[in-house]
Specification:
The chain is an all-alpha fold. The protein has one domain. 82% of the residues lie in helices and 0% in strands. It contains 8 helices and no strands. The chain is elongated, with a radius of gyration of 19 Å.
């Protein structure tokens, strides 16, 4: 029974990571309100795909948490932190990826005439989006760090995945110290591709491992 859980959740992690990668490939660069209206269908498609990927990722992390369960239940804490991060990602995609393009599209024929009203609304949407992005980034880093520590210490999945996760946190901290802009399109793409690679590796390993490799010694 547990073998099937790990296989299905591993496949879910793989699917979620591939959907995240596809989202970032499709994600266009932002710009003026006119540009947002002109490429609104692409923006909404990319962010719809992002939201669609989140349940797969969360279900996958549920299986990873079960597999890495320890006496202190740190894997459960990691799952909860990741859940908060994914919720923030959902709201970020909802605000800037779906709501804003749809809202501006209602004024596609009169953007200039209503610019004084629409521009503050667009600015507010971007302002809300930025802290949501940071909640997602910090949540992912902390969660993956906990999972990676368990992978290294519990020896249930390949240790290189754990070391890879720790490197992600170290590089993220260095980026924060050096002023790297994680919320720019380029910065967010780099971070997201890196996270997706870790999720993909974890999913493949989780799907291939058997229960005897994952259960505690009795």
């Amino acid at each position: 029974m547990q073998d099937h859980l790990y296989k299905s959740t591993g496949i879910s992690l793989i699917s979620g990571s591939l959907l995240i990668i596809a989202t970032m490939v499709l994600h266009p660069s932002g710009g003026s309100m006119e540009r947002i209206v002109n490429i609104s269908s692409t923006i909404m498609s990319a962010h719809s795909l992002a939201i669609f990927s989140l349940p797969f990722v969360l279900f996958g992390f549920y299986g990873l948490s079960k597999g890495l369960s320890d006496k202190y239940q740190l894997s459960t804490l990691a799952l909860m932190i990741m859940g908060f991060g994914l919720i923030a990602a959902m709201f970020a995609a909802l605000f800037n990826g779906l709501t804003l393009p749809y809202f501006l599209g209602q004024y596609s024929e009169s953007l200039e005439q209503n610019a004084d009203v629409l521009r503050p609304i667009a600015t507010f949407s971007f302002s809300v989006n930025k802290p949501l992005d940071y909640i997602f980034i910090v949540g992912c880093c902390l969660s993956i760090f906990l999972y990676s520590g368990l992978i290294v210490t519990e020896n249930k999945l390949p240790k290189w995945i754990g070391y890879f996760g720790m490197v992600i946190l170290i590089l993220s901290v260095l980026g924060l110290i050096t002023g790297f802009v994680f919320t720019s399109l380029t910065g967010f793409r780099i971070f997201t591709f890196t996270i997706a690679a870790w999720i993909l590796a974890s999913g493949v390993s989780l799907a291939k491992f058997k229960i005897k490799n994952l259960q505690h010694d009795k």
